[in-house]
Amino acid sequence: MSAPVKYSSQREAILRFLKSRKDHPTADVVFHHIRKDIPNISLATVYRNLNQLAAAGIILRLTTDGKTDHFDACVEPHYHFCCRGCNGVMDIDMEPFPELTKKAEEVSNYKIEQATILFSGLCDCCKDKL
Amino acid sequence: MSAPVKYSSQREAILRFLKSRKDHPTADVVFHHIRKDIPNISLATVYRNLNQLAAAGIILRLTTDGKTDHFDACVEPHYHFCCRGCNGVMDIDMEPFPELTKKAEEVSNYKIEQATILFSGLCDCCKDKL
DNA sequence: CTTAATAATGATAATGGTTACTATTATTAG
DNA sequence: CTAATAATAGTAACCATTATCATTATTAAG
After folding, report:
1. Nucleotides in chain C near protein beta carbons (<7 Å)
2. Cα separation, A75 vs B3, whole angstroms
3. How near does any CA of chain B get to the CA of A18, in Å?
């Protein structure tokens, strides 16, 4: 889980792909897209690199109620929404409330390093269907 | 995943155990504790009942960065903290911000049913050790 | 108090996302 | 160019959770 020290074209392709997407793909989605350019890339390589990049703070891992993690190339603090219809993960474009973390730290005495705010419900598409 | 319709002593024991705990045990922890009273209870029964109770809104499922879910007998809206040292999940005793959800719904157009706020970092114990 | 219908259980196999392992390949410093 | 070693591909293993199914327990009706 250490930061990458040697270049690899696979890692570059993975990061490039993630940056090109506004949604937040799962490892499997990344894998299947990268395969178009690098047909023999291994799923393990995708996971390894996503983990490395996340550990290095270059990308963000999003753990939602679903069982599969999603990944986000935007590491600026922002909020997410997970649709219980399609399991898609989208951004919520509102400015973060830093006072939330401050308040929580005051109240708890814990060393709070991160605040994850995840909304859930139904997205535009699923709102109508369900 | 439907609500329970028949009584079972196993379910009662699981719910009673959950209510007795301030931390938020995993299915496995519930299983091992219930086993002291009901030695031949099955892990599947624990999972089945935790799922039912959560679906019925009687308990809360907490999905954290760790790989295993935690369960909470308190369904009042409140915030949680997950320690990256010991993977424990604790309550944060501060009043919720309902305006968060309202704002997010305005901005996004999604039907937001739930807001999950999860802080993470180091708890009192792990703060010193790490 | 039976009895019949069926929900719940225990035991265990299966599933699915993720990680570990290992021989091979690619990068990089000297 | 060469040696050292990080990264990879392919695949087996892992582990939390779920599905399956024969058996048991609950419950409503007679």
Report:
1. 7-13, 16-21, 26-28
2. 40
3. 20
CA–CA separation, B19 and B123 (whole Å): 22
Which chain B residues are within 8 Å of A23, Cβ to Cβ?
none
Over residues A79-121, the pLDDT tens digits come to 999 998 888 999 999 988 888 999 999 999 999 999 999 999 9
CATH of the domain at A24: 1.10.10.10
Would B1 be classed as within a structural domain? no
The answer to whether A116 CB is within 7 Å of strand C is no
Angstrom distance (rounded) from CA A12 to CA A8: 6
For residue A19, being part of any structural domain is answered with yes
Question: Can you tell me which residue has its alpha carbon closest to the C1' of nucleotide C18?
Answer: A47
- Residue B1 predicted with pLDDT over 60: no
Domain count, chain B: 1
How would you class A9 by CB atoms within 10 Å of its CB: exposed for 0-12, middle for 13-18, buried for 19 or more?
A: exposed
- Domain range for A25: 9-129
Model pLDDT for residues B15-45, shown as the tens digit of each residue: 999 999 999 999 999 999 999 999 999 999 9
In a domain, A57, yes or no: yes
How close is the nearest chain A Cα to the Cα of B23, in Å? Answer: 14
So what's the pLDDT on residue B90? 96
